[in-house]
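Q: what does this look like with adenosine monophosphate bound?
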Amino acid sequence: MGSDTVERLRAAVRDVPDFPKKGIVFKDITPVLSHSGLFRASIDLFVERCRGRQIDKIVGIDARGFVFGSAVAYELGVGFVPIRKRGKLPYKTEIAKYSLEYGEAEMEMHTDAVRAGERVVLVDDLLATGGTSAAAALLIRKAGADLVEAQFLIELEFLEGRKRLEPTPVTSFLKY
Ligand code: AMP
């Protein structure tokens, strides 16, 4: 993938100041999704990173991780697993708590979604503090799967989220 494509993706991500609250600059990826060429280009970044690595499943995080993760899984010809905010999954689940700026939240995954020894890649749109993806990583490891890598379209490097994900290797394509 050329650096010009990465730059076009970067230019398409829209900064929305003070959303969802004052002081947060929200990275809005909907202009990437709605553009045919750029949506495909964003999926190709993940796919190229996964090819040849014997990946068994893509795990996506609620909700924008579903958009990217499911397209990546489709292209690789592997299964897709959703990790959701608590209360949305119908079957038996494992739960992981994580801290937000104010208070706590919980993510859950079906107990039979990934199996011991499976090689799994975690996908989300954006890595900020890493709290959300660290909880997801915990669920994947608890199930006995091999978490090969966590991949993000965007990384807010100044928040040092990848430290929170250690020892999981992290790849991001657009760094801020
Ligand atoms: P964190 O747990 O802090 O790494 O936050 C990651 C999750 O929150 C991801 O699922 C992102 O979609 C969302 N998120 C956090 N900060 C931002 C931001 N500045 N812009 C867009 N999404 C964000």
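The first strand starts at residue 14 and ends at 17. Strands lie at 14-17, 25-28, 57-61, 79-85, 93-99, 104-110, 119-127, 146-155, 170-175.
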